[in-house]
Fold this protein.
Amino acid sequence: MKVYIAAAHGKKDDIKLYTAPWLRENGFEVVSTWHDVENPGYNDDYELMRAEAMRDISEIKSADTLVKLRDSKASVIKSKGGKFEELGYALALSKRVVVIGDREGILEWHPEVHQFHTLFEFITEVKGNEKVL
């Protein structure tokens, strides 16, 4: 299963070091790369932001499933909301969408969005049985 990981930019290092490798070790192909490349996050560099937006769109298109990670309730991460935009775009493309953790945004209540409490639960239930989704 090809997955695009959507999350707050502040989770980038955790995704690069732990989440993406764990998914790969369990047979998932991680197609998102935003968490692996050096970038300054949101800024006023039009060309850079345009290129990153086009890359993200292309990677979402190539994915079977978008996996959106929730910010922890105690998190002080300030997010501009890109993960919500990515989730909406994936739904518009009729991609499978999975939320890990509590639902945060209105589109996460869409009937085609599947929720798992932990990444471990998602991997355990879906690995080798995509019909769960």
